[in-house]
Each structure stands twice: as structure tokens, then as C-alpha cells.
Task: inverse folding
């Protein structure tokens, strides 16, 4: 909301510092965004008096003027046809920078020196008028600043208004707050409406179908208006508010909207048929052409203004092309109404037609003030157009404004705010804000809120007024005692706590935590051959690249990889803890959200070749991370890694199982997919289901195992077998055949003889130990022999 | 002096000289051992000289024996001192070939995302005050996200947040405030929860990303006041930004709190002066303040929606943007960097 300082001062005599005003209003809840000078770009223009004006000796269309600019006489060559001796004109002297950025320099035009420029309004960015140079009032003194003699606004505040403060969408609203803040008197503009016979109520009948949608509709008639030049004072005030002048009639309605907050509409009375204005909804599918000449398709939720035969305006949103004022219009029907905020908002949003008017109606206008606004607009219209205002008002008010009264308990207010103020303070606040206060019952006052404060709907809203006027910033600070139940004190690990543990592990394992958007493009999921069913789509995405919630952690991580490769970062070791989303008809949000851990490894295993060498990461790196997390860190059972065929985007793909349940997958991104993300090397991925892991963890407890009392005895064996026999198979077979004294088996070496591609040698170390005695070599040898014999039987291997 | 004695003593002297003259000959401990055997060994030169002792007169023997011992000691000391020198040279050699400037063998260095770091830091302060974690869905229904929070359909406050919709009734949560509702429905007061998490808005430019992180806080009990709210927020703001940080409560509007406030902190760059080295501070744009969160006292309509009696209970709620705090804390200028995951960015935080 833009607020011109001088306009504000017409209501309230604030003479202090402008920054102080802005700060004070900010602390009342009207946040100052900035202070601007709307006429900054013409501040150097001065008044010039054309003392001489002669034809240019070398050019027919140019004139050579001698211009008195106050401190000197300058020669200026001017091309405008309307230039004449004796005029007062705006002059840009040498050195002045014009609104379009051009700097005025000394120039020679066809041999005659020109020291400046005489300007048109358009050149000054004030209007579209470029018929010629701008001829100013003869009373202006040469040399005076243009902005000063025209009394142009130099200070315009820009405030951010929260949706509850509809009352502050006008100069008047700010004047009220300024008066409140500085204890200044508020002066309303005087009404000097001259009515001249007839009766508007006889000319137009107002019919309102639904009082709820339109509690009040007033209209006045102004006859015999002429299209005239809008007076400078009005058009420059509007310009300072960011509103260009349109016509003398429309400018008057805009003027009142800015000044008092009531949006008004003017119809061409001669285009209104049937001497009737009716407020009633549209019908579904109905067409209506608004005054921007766009045909709109309406619904039964849109409220229309009709005449006796046809719709003439979208109530509170925009007028119709069939009834708008035009240059030949003679008679005006001026509307000042109140519409239901929700209805206006729905229509404005559905049609994408936000306007200054709908913005105010949506938030609520002051029903009591509505009549005054119309009368003042009618007065201004008559004054600026030469028209006459027909006596009387065509009016319907099926739902008159009722003052709302709320209880106010001061002690409760003080308890909520954490303050201890005298009741008199609250009373003063309410009174200054225009509320009625009945304190007959000292513990429960009755406070009636004024019609402009639609936000004062409940007792608690009154507390806010006391708080904000006293200053929320002056409330003491106290650290609260947070009461807790015993049950809460022994709660299990929270989801946040668990996820934090996973993240801490990730960072500890040497991975960088990434955070990707939760949404991806439909295409990203298709590219990974992910199922089309179950996707949660966004109905109004910002772009097609962000139109669906991810059903898988991979697309985000692959985007991260792509971005890094593009930046020349060839070592990528990232993890992300985030949710996957799939549709779920059982859920109250229609969506199932599942936490997962994604890991992506790409490029060299180590940051530097020395001393590690330059090998790239491989399966054992990602597998090792998974083992490190599940069994070493979380102490869950040893996971099993099972080759899985036909995965959507991984090959090989290995399922990670704990006690038979799949908790995640590990694998290499298929080459064609990796290629899309510009990955020239293998990209290894992990995707762990954290919901399952968390459940397993909750069921798991750590139990101390006694340390062994007797020494171990170890035997190594090298198993020669086909490459199709997995290490895990051999380990399982050994474990299965081992007697009571076989404590553990581990793989210690792999050797593939050169030129051999069908067989490999795997060396295992078997640890034997008895819990009750020191084993003898002969006993161990005997057991070891048994193990090997059984292994040979179980698998196609030899030693 | 007896001739035999004289030649015996001269023999010992020349033995000592002989040994002294061999200085520098032994460069290693092995060579030194050889010298030791040559002079002091069982069949060494000293032993051979001592073999002559029997030929001397008995009266000369004490003098001869004394001399022999002196020479033995002299030779032993010589050899020992050479051993020290050789050892020192060896150590010196070993150290001079040890290069401490070779690059170290570092384990992989992992990092947490700055959003996680800041979130943890803030949550730690709040859990320290007794707040408990709550988590809930990111895809939320309209009732939790808007209606129960006193934002009925067509309420202009819905304009304050551009919403991403899944359907008419399902949205991507626009704030973590819906968790206030879920938390209160789950239990009776007292309630003291924080809910950190992702939120979504239909907004994307230099200062907005369509996804970001918030932390919601809610305290409901009997007699909770705005002074408690001010205390809680001041405590954590000072923890994050330093004990000297000024906190300002500015009246504002949120449909689910009444009264509502926005909280500004004194600018982290200019310290509230509004300028740095004579020019307008780029962080606070010269105002000296930066907005950091929104808060207020829980609106009675919200209590009614969850079945709490607003006449009995009061409470406060607040919500803050994590990225905003991270940007201020670490001096990150571009919001989008948070979600590009450039490892050179990620590696800077730990």
C-alpha cells in the first residue's frame, strides 16, 4: 500500500520526521517496506519564461527561444509547434538527466546554440500527452523547481499490509493509525455536495437477490458530465499513488478508493436498460465481456450486477464492456456497494482478475463509510466534469451494519500478554480506535468495534490491540517452565532422533549430505523405468520438471551427480535422507510417505591419487558402507546380499536382506541411464528403507557377550571352485558344516590365476575355539578335516 | 728401568696409538665390532701384548699390569665413543630421509548439510528447554494445513502462501504449522513440541525456492503468556547468533495466532547499524533489522478445532525458516545453492 505523505497530512497534522513515522507504524503492525520520491526523476526541472521566440533562420519547424530560467537567460532551440513568446514552460537545463536517462548537453541545432530543453508532459513521464510542450500556469516564477510549484508529492511510503488490516488500504486508514500513534486529531474531508432536483431513487430501482452476497448497494446519478482535463492536483496525487490518470470520471472513483478505501464503479447511465440495477449471481457457462474486452465464462458462484435486461458488471471485480464510460458519455450511474469478501475473492481468483477494487472487497470494506465515499465522489465528479448531481440516492441495504460488541476481561488480557497494565490504558486504546466501551461490569467490559475494524471480531482481537499499542516489544521476557508427563519422559527414540543418527553416520562414513527437491519431473521417473502407478502428481506445478513427488530416491541423487559433473567435480560421494511418496487411498492425506536413505558413489575411491592410487569406486565400496551401517553401527544381524535380476534402473542389483526381509538395494546405475546424467564412469547407488530399519532397531537390544577365556586356533584353506559359486555360499557351507568348536570363518584373499575365467581361488581363515579348554592341534586338525570334507560334498569345489 | 719392562710399556703405548690412528676407519657398527675384536678380542692385540707379561720381573708386574689396564680402558672408551658417533650418524641419516611434508593418508571426510546443521542447533536449544520432536506428513490435507488453522476456504490469508496442490483437498504442506494440529489431536495439554521439516510453496526466484525447511514450535498449557514466547525465542536466537543479539517483536498477522508477531534480530552483518564501511548494509538493507520468524499466541479458533477449551488453555506457536537462518549464520547469499548440492559447497559445512 502506497501512502503519500501530503495526502496523509490532509487528515492528520503530522509534522515530524518521516522515518520516525514509518518506524512507529511498523511497530504498530504496518510494516514499512520503503520510502520513495515518485517524482525523483524530474526534480531538477525548472520553470522557464519564454522571453523571446523567433523562427530558426535555417529550419522552418524550429524556433529559437530566449528563456529566463531565473538566474540566467538561455538560448534554447525548440521544435514544438505550440511554443510561443510569454509562455511559462518546464525547462531541463544543461546537465539535467531526463526520466529516460538522457543527459541534456550543450548542442548546436542547424548552427544555433541550444542550452537546454523545453519539455512536453510525455518527456517528463507524467502523461501520454505529446501534442507539444507543456504550457504551465502563468503565475509560476522562473527558476523555481517544477516539483515545488506543482506541489508534487515527494514522500510516498510503501507499507506491507497484512490481510486482517483491510482498514489500512486507504489514506484514511493510515491517518487513523498515525493519529493513534502520535495522539493527533483526525480531520475528515468536508462534504459540499450540491444536489439539483429529481430523485435518483425514481430513476433507478435497486434489487438485491441475496442480502448475504450484497448487504448494501447505493447509487447516485450525475447528469450532463463532460470529458474534461483532470485537474493537476488530482492527477498528480493519483500519479504519486502509482495510478495514471484515465478520465475525469474514472479518476474520481480511483481517488476515493485510495483516499477512503471504498472501491466505486461508474456506469454510463444511458447504457443501463430497464431503470433497474439488480445484484444476482450468474449462471453456469454464461458469457460476459468485461471492460478489458475479454469474454469471460462465468459460473453460478460469480456475482453479477444486472440492469433490467443484461449483466453490466462482475460485482466487485470489473465492469462490463457494454456499460462502461466512454468519451461521449453524458450521464453517470455511480455505484458504491459492499459485497461478500469470499465471493469476490473466488471470482477474482478463478478469472485471474485481481484488481485494486477486488483486493479491497476481498478483505472487507467499511459499510457505514460507503455512503460518504459515494457522496464525496459525486461531488468531485460534478466539480471536475461540470455535471450536476441528481438529488437522492438509489439504495438497497438488506443487511444494515450492526455494531459488534465483545466482552473484554482485562485480567485475562494481561495474563495472555504477560503484562500488568492499568485498565485505563486498555480503555484509552479502545476509545482512540473508535470503539465504544461499557465498563459497567469492571471485570467484563463490553467493547463495540467500529465498522472500519472488521478484524475486531472477538475478545482476543481486543487483546491484540492492547498489546500492539502498548508495544509487543515492551512485554517482558520469561523462560517458561515446560510441564511434562511421566509417560512422555520415557518415550522411545523419535523419528527425528533416528534420522539424525543415520545422517550422523553418513557424515562419519565420509559422505556429503545432499538435499534435493521432493518433487521431480514425470520424465525423470519414466527414464528410470519406474512404475507409472502410485505417483502423487502436483496439480499446479511450477514446471514440468517439478510435477510429481518422487517415488524413488534415485532421480534426485542422479541430478546431484549431473550438477557436480557439470561443475567439474568428479568425486561424488553423497547421501540423502528423505521421503518417497506414493498414493495410498487409506491415508488421510491420500499419500504414503516413506523415509529412505540414498547413497551415490561415483569416480575415484579417494580424493588424491597419492598414496591411495586412482582406482574408481566399485561394488565393494557401496556394499561395505551398507555393512558398516547395518551390522557395525546399528548392530543389526549380518545382512545377506542377494543378486536380483530385472531391476528398473540398476544392473547388477543386489537386494540387502536381514533375517529374510529386504531392507534395501545396492547396485550400479544402468549405463544408458547413467549416460543421460553425463556419468562416464560407474555410478553406484544404495537405497535403504529406513522404516524397516527403524522397526528392526526398535526390536533390537544389545547384549554383552563374555570374552573368550581360552586361545583360538586358526586354519587357512584355499578353496578352488567355479566363479559361479559365490563367496557367501562357501561361507554358509563352512558355517553349516562346522562343529561346535568352529567359532568363525572369514574370507582373507581372492586370487584368479592369469588366463583363467572359469575358476578362482578363495582363501578362508577358520577360527576354532572351545569355551571350556585350550584345544589341542590334533583335535583342531580332525575337526578341520571334517569341515573340508563336508564342504567338498556340498559344493563343486576342491582344495 | 728394566729393558723388558720398557719394551712392554712401549708396546702398550704403540697399541693405544695404533687404535687412535684408526679413528674414522669404522663407519658401521659391524666394522666397529671388527676393530673391537682386533684390539680387545680374546686373541686380539691387547691379549697378545698381555702374553708378554709373564716374562717380566715380578717387581715390574704391578706397573705393567696397571699400564695394561689403562690402555685397555683407553681403547674401550675410544671404541665406545666411536659407537656413539656411528649411532648418531645413523639416526641422523634416518631422520634426514624422513619427509614429514608428504601428504597425509586421510580417511573420507563427510559433512552434514548446512540445513541439517542449523536445524540441529536450533532444535538442541529447544529440546533443552523441554520441547519434544514431532514429525508428520509433507503431503497434507487442506483441513490440517489451512482450515483447522483458522484459514477457511476463500480466506484472504491463503494468499500469504502460494500453495502447491495435489488435489482440491490435498496440498504440499505450506508450513509446518499443520503439525500443531496433529500434535494437539494426539494428546491433552500440556503440549510442548517442535516440528522441523520440509515445506513447499509455489514460488521460485532469487529469494524463494519451492521447497525449504521450517521449524515449528508449540507450547500449550494453562497460563502460557506472550512473555513466555518472548523468553523462549530470545533464548534460542541468542544461542544461534550470539548473546548480544537484539530481538524485536513487531505486531503482524497470522490466522492461527492472536496476537501475532514477526521477530526481527539485529542485523548479523552490520550489528544493527544499518551500514558497513559507509555504505548501506546489504543484509538488512539499512534497516538494522532482519526478519527471522513469525509467532504468536495460539488463536482460540485453533484450540476449538482440536477440542481444547480456549478458556482454560493458552499457548504460543512459532515457525522459522531454516535456510534463512543458515544464510545469515554462514553468509550464504544464494538460496538456490542449498539444493544444487555442489560438493564444494557441501564440504564447507561440518
Result:
Amino acid at each position: 500500500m502506497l501512502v503519500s505523505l501530503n495526502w496523509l497530512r490532509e487528515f492528520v497534522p503530522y509534522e515530524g520526521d518521516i522515518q520516525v513515522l514509518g518506524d512507529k507504524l511498523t511497530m504498530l503492525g504496518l510494516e514499512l517496506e520503503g520510502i520513495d520520491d515518485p517524482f525523483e526523476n524530474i526534480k531538477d526541472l525548472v520553470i522557464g519564461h519564454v522571453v523571446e521566440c523567433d523562427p530558426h533562420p535555417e529550419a522552418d519547424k524550429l524556433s529559437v527561444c530566449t528563456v529566463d530560467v531565473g538566474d540566467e537567460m538561455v538560448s534554447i532551440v525548440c521544435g514544438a509547434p505550440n511554443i510561443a513568446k510569454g509562455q511559462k514552460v518546464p525547462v531541463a537545463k544543461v546537465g539535467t538527466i531526463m526520466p529516460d536517462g538522457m543527459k541534456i548537453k550543450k548542442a548546436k541545432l542547424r548552427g544555433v546554440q541550444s542550452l537546454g530543453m523545453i519539455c512536453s508532459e510525455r518527456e517528463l513521464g507524467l502523461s501520454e500527452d505529446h501534442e507539444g510542450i507543456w504550457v504551465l500556469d502563468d503565475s509560476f516564477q522562473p527558476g523555481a523547481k517544477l516539483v515545488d510549484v506543482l506541489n508534487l508529492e515527494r514522500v510516498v511510503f510503501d507499507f506491507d499490509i497484512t490481510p486482517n488490516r483491510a482498514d489500512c488500504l486507504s489514506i484514511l486508514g493510515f491517518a487513523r493509525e498515525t493519529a493513534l500513534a502520535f495522539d493527533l486529531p483526525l480531520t475528515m474531508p468536508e462534504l459540499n455536495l450540491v444536489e439539483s432536483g429529481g430523485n435518483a431513487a425514481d430513476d433507478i430501482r435497486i434489487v438485491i437477490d441475496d442480502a448475504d452476497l450484497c448487504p448494501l448497494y447505493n447509487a447516485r446519478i450525475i447528469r450532463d458530465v463532460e470529458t474534461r482535463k483532470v485537474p493537476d492536483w488530482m492527477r498528480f496525487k493519483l500519479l504519486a499513488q502509482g495510478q495514471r490518470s484515465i478520465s475525469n470520471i474514472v479518476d474520481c472513483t480511483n481517488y476515493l478508493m485510495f483516499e477512503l478505501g471504498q472501491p466505486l464503479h461508474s456506469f454510463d447511465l444511458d447504457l443501463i436498460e430497464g431503470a433497474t440495477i439488480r445484484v444476482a449471481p450468474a449462471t453456469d457457462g454464461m458469457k460476459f465481456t468485461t471492460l478489458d474486452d475479454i469474454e469471460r465464462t462465468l459460473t453460478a458462484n460469480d456475482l453479477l450486477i444486472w440492469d433490467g435486461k443484461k449483466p453490466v458488471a462482475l460485482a466487485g471485480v470489473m465492469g462490463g464492456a457494454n456499460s462502461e464510460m466512454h468519451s461521449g458519455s453524458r450521464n453517470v450511474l455511480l455505484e458504491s456497494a459492499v459485497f461478500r469478501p469470499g465471493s469476490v475473492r473466488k471470482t477474482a481468483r478463478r478469472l485471474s482478475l485481481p484488481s485494486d477494487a477486488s483486493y479491497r472487497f476481498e478483505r472487507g470494506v467499511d459499510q457505514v463509510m460507503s455512503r460518504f465515499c459515494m457522496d464525496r465522489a459525486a461531488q468531485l465528479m460534478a466539480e471536475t466534469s461540470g455535471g450536476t448531481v441528481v438529488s437522492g440516492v438509489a439504495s438497497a441495504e438488506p443487511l444494515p451494519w450492526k455494531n459488534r460488541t465483545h466482552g473484554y476481561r482485562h485480567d485475562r488480557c494481561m495474563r495472555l500478554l504477560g503484562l500488568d497494565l492499568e485498565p485505563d490504558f486498555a480503555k484509552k486504546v479502545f476509545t482512540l480506535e473508535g470503539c465504544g466501551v461499557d465498563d459497567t461490569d469492571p471485570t467484563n467490559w463490553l467493547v463495540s468495534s467500529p465498522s472500519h475494524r472488521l478484524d475486531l471480531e472477538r475478545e482476543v482481537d481486543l487483546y491484540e490491540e492492547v498489546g500492539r499499542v502498548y508495544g509487543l516489544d515492551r512485554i517482558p521476557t520469561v523462560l517458561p517452565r515446560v510441564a511434562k508427563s511421566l509417560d512422555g519422559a520415557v518415550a522411545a527414540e523419535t523419528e527425528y532422533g533416528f534420522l539424525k543418527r543415520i545422517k550422523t553416520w553418513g557424515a562419519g562414513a565420509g559422505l556429503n549430505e545432499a538435499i534435493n527437491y521432493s518433487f521431480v519431473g514425470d520424465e525423470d521417473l519414466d527414464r528410470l523405468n519406474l512404475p507409472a502407478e502410485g505417483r502423487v502428481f502436483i496439480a499446479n506445478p511450477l514446471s514440468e520438471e517439478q510435477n510429481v513427488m518422487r517415488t524413488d530416491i534415485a532421480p534426485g541423487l542422479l541430478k546431484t551427480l549431473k550438477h557436480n559433473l557439470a561443475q567439474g567435480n568428479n568425486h561424488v560421494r553423497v547421501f540423502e535422507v528423505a521421503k518417497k511418496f506414493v498414493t495410498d487411498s487409506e491415508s488421510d492425506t491420500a499419500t504414503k510417505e516413506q523415509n529412505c536413505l540414498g547413497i551415490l558413489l561415483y569416480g575415484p575411491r579417494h580424493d588424491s591419487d597419492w598414496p591411495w592410487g586412482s582406482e574408481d569406486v566399485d561394488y565393494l565400496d557401496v556394499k561395505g558402507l551398507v555393512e558398516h551401517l547395518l551390522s557395525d553401527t546399528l548392530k543389526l544381524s549380518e545382512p545377506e546380499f542377494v543378486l536380483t535380476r530385472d531391476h528398473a534402473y540398476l544392473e547388477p542389483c543386489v537386494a540387502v536382506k536381514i533375517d529374510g526381509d529386504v531392507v534395501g538395494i545396492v547396485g550400479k546405475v544402468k549405463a544408458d541411464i547413467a549416460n543421460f546424467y553425463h556419468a562416464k564412469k560407474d555410478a553406484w547407488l544404495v537405497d535403504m528403507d529406513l522404516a524397516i530399519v527403524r522397526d528392526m532397531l526398535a526390536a533390537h537390544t544389545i547384549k554383552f557377550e563374555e570374552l573368550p577365556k581360552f586361545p583360538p586356533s586358526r586354519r587357512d584353506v584355499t578353496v578352488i571352485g567355479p566363479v559361479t559359486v559365490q563367496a557367501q555360499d562357501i561361507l554358509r557351507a563352512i558355517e553349516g558344516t562346522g562343529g561346535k568348536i568352529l567359532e568363525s570363518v572369514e574370507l582373507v584373499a581372492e586370487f584368479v590365476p592369469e588366463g583363467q575365467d572359469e575358476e578362482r581361488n578363495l582363501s578362508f581363515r577358520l577360527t576354532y575355539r572351545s569355551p571350556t579348554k585350550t584345544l589341542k592341534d590334533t583335535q583342531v586338525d580332525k575337526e578341520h578335516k571334517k569341515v573340508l570334507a563336508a564342504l567338498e560334498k556340498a559344493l563343486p569345489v576342491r582344495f | 728401568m728394566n729393558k723388558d719392562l720398557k719394551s712392554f710399556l712401549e708396546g702398550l703405548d704403540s697399541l693405544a696409538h695404533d687404535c687412535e690412528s684408526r679413528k674414522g676407519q669404522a663407519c658401521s657398527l659391524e666394522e666397529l665390532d671388527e676393530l673391537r675384536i682386533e684390539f680387545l678380542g680374546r686373541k686380539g692385540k691387547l691379549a697378545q701384548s698381555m702374553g708378554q707379561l709373564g716374562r717380566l720381573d715380578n717387581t715390574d708386574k704391578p706397573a705393567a699390569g696397571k699400564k695394561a689396564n689403562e690402555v685397555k680402558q683407553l681403547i674401550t672408551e675410544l671404541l665406545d665413543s666411536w659407537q656413539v658417533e656411528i649411532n648418531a650418524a645413523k639416526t641422523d641419516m634416518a631422520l634426514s630421509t624422513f619427509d614429514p611434508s608428504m601428504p597425509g593418508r586421510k580417511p573420507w571426510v563427510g559433512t552434514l548439510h548446512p540445513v541439517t546443521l542449523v536445524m540441529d542447533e536450533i532444535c538442541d536449544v529447544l529440546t533443552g528447554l523441554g520441547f519434544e520432536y514431532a514429525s508428520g506428513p509433507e503431503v497434507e490435507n487442506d483441513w490440517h494445513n489451512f482450515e483447522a488453522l483458522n484459514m477457511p476456504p476463500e480466506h484472504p490469508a491463503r494468499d500469504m502462501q502460494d500453495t502447491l496442490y495435489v488435489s482440491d483437498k490435498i496440498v504440499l504442506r505450506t508450513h509446518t504449522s499443520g503439525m500443531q494440529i496433529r500434535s494437539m489431536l494426539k494428546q491433552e495439554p500440556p503440549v510442548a513440541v517442535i516440528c522441523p521439516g520440509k515445506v513447499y510453496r509455489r514460488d521460485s526466484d532469487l529469494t524463494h525456492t519451492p521447497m525449504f525447511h521450517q521449524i515449528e514450535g508449540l507450547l500449550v498449557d494453562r497460563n502460557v503468556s506472550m512473555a513466555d514466547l518472548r523468553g523462549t525465542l530470545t533464548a534460542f536466537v541468542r544461542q544461534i547468533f550470539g548473546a548480544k543479539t537484539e530481538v524485536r517483536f513487531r505486531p503482524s498477522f497470522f490466522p492461527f495466532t492472536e496476537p501475532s508477531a514477526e521477530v526481527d534480530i539485529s542485523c548479523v552483518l552490520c550489528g544493527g547499524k544499518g551500514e558497513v564501511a559507509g555504505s548501506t548494509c546489504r543484509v538488512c538493507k539499512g534497516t538494522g533489522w532482519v526478519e527471522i520468524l513469525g509467532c504468536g499466541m495460539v488463536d482460540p479458533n485453533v484450540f476449538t478445532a482440536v477440542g481444547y477449551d480456549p478458556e482454560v488453555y493458552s499457548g504460543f506457536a512459532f515457525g522459522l525458516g531454516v535456510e534463512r537462518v543458515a544464510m545469515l549464520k554462514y553468509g550464504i547469499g544464494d538460496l538456490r545453492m542449498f539444493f544444487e548440492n555442489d560438493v564444494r559447497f557441501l564440504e564447507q559445512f561440518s
